[in-house]
Amino acid sequence: MILNYDVIVVGGGHAGCEAASAAARLGAQTLLVTMDMNKIAQMSCNPAVGGIAKGQIVREIDALGGQMGLVTDATAIQFRMLNCGKGPAVWSPRAQCDREKFIWKWREQLDHTDNLDIWQDQADELVVENGEAVGVKTIWGVEIRAKCVVVTAGTFLNGLMHMGRKQVPGGRCAEPAVYHFTESITRHGIRADRMKTGTPVRIDRRSVHFEDMEEQPGEDRPYMFSYVGGSRRLKQLPCWTCNTNAEVHRVLREGLDDSPLYNGQIQSIGPRYCPSIETKLVTFPDREQHPLFLEPEGEDTNEMYLNGFSSSMPINVQLAAIQQIKCFRDAKVYRPGYAIEYDFFDPTQLSHSLESKVVKNLFFAGQVNGTTGYEEAGGQGLMAGINAALRAGETAERPFCPFTLGRDEAYIGVLIDDLVTKGVDEPYRMFTSRAEYRILLRQDDADARLTERSYQLGLASRERYDWWLQKKADIERILDFCDNTSVKMADANAALEALGTTPLRFGCKLTELLSRPQLSMQMLTSVVPGLAEVLNAAENRKEEIAEAAEIRIKYKGYIERERIVAEKMHRLENIRIKGRFDYSTLHEISTEGRQKLQRIDPETLAQASRIPGVSPSDINVLLVLLGR
Fold first, then answer.
1. Which pTM was predicted?
2. Distance CA 44, CA 189 (A)
3. What is the tens place of the pLDDT at every residue in 356-368?
4. Whole-number Å distance between alpha carbons of 160 and 213
5. Residue 224 half-sphere exposure, CB side, CA atoms within 13 Å?
6. CB–CB of 485/99 below 8 Å?
7. In DSSP terms, which residues pair with 4 in a beta bridge?
8. β-strands 214-216, 239-243: how paired?
9. Which of 84, 275, 289, 400 could make an S-S bridge to 279, C-beta 3.0–4.6 Å?
10. Which residues pair with 558 in a beta bridge?
């Protein structure tokens, strides 16, 4: 049996769902191949979306016309805006979701996407002809032909789970590993290696003493992930916090000899920024306690997730350690934590479109590129799906022009540039500190940065574009009012003193007054006539729009300064060097620089400057040679 499509997406996780949805909505006849249609977009670890820098990625996915934000809003059982005590450049939305409803909402989205079919099967072999990917073969003997293949296989490729000294093949608990597929890829010159990740114990809420924990409620403010989302639909539930203690640490230390992380059983590298509880004890031996967060898995289940207690220790050690915490003294568990090793492919062999430099028409996205996290996977999947659809639609009259994002345009751009330029030696996780232009990449303005581009591409819908145009008009109306409204001393000083800020010595524009960190628009509605009416004139999401306008006023100087720096870097981004040098012959460049440049073959001089091991003097040599 042979099936024919424009784009095949292998894997139904977060990357695969975004890739398949994007490719189909751009008009490509798309097939999503997944081992289990009932576990589409499974949240293998914590059923939460967003967090520091990750929330910005979800907002960007939404602004581009992706689905993760909409699905999250529809299934959220708690929402919080993190980092609000800091500047808005690092504010990050996060939502706890109902795990099962999240799956079925994604399934609903895919089932109602034109040009998209789903095939329940397991890809067994990548088919390559004349250096081009042309399809896959499955374990059931079905051959599927396509113009492009997108691999989003998550942790399933040669997956091996660890719990104590016990090893069980699998890509996820109770799900089989995928064999042979990695080898069908690497035989064509694509490099692969191994990584490790893990997940914590799941606890029965009926066995928890919540009176011994601290409640962590969500926020009532009407924030949503999607810029076009509605109100929250599900019951909002609290999370809970507690800490480990000396007895917990004692039990865990006594079991370290049976830890696969420390007895030589696991050789691959795990995520530095999401370590197991046993790694925390070894890395921070003087710490008397570590924070834990007990989070609900859904509104209709007793299953709860113990965030901060990821472990691959033996079952009896995990349970004995947990029960040393007062609130878990009678704890019953659904399943213990475990670690998993899996294959990934060297992302420096990819272009910024996420297409392989080795095999044409082959794209990779998600954990197979060495990343960790649903959000990082979703962002890559969206970009890979877009570019696979564009590549599949290539004609002589309309050559392939990749859709890419710069480091000053999106966290997704930072993510992909880091992967293809620097590679990975541990699971890559996004942080705000990775983005040098994070003041330009705020969570409140992703639609301003990306919706226009996506609409011109054909992915963002007219409805989404109209939402952005209305929001843009509402913000500009507020900014115009603030720029042109004068505030007099006699009208404002008494109120300013009551608000704890210095009174005016002379009149000023409202914009200047709002630049003070102690003041907000909401505070000044009773002071400035007409301000409340302007804020309430917004058609949708009034609080969000007022906040976006206020951020632009308060941080105008910082935003403009960062934009100037970004524009300077664009000069190097515009100097294309791919294919212009045989780096092995450039002895004016350091040996390490020659090796790194030869291996990565950067597209632009700016990308070359970001390669670890390529020095500023090496870049100057390239500039001189280009001048010749």
1. 0.94
2. 30
3. 999 999 999 999 9
4. 35
5. 24
6. no
7. 145
8. antiparallel
9. 275
10. none
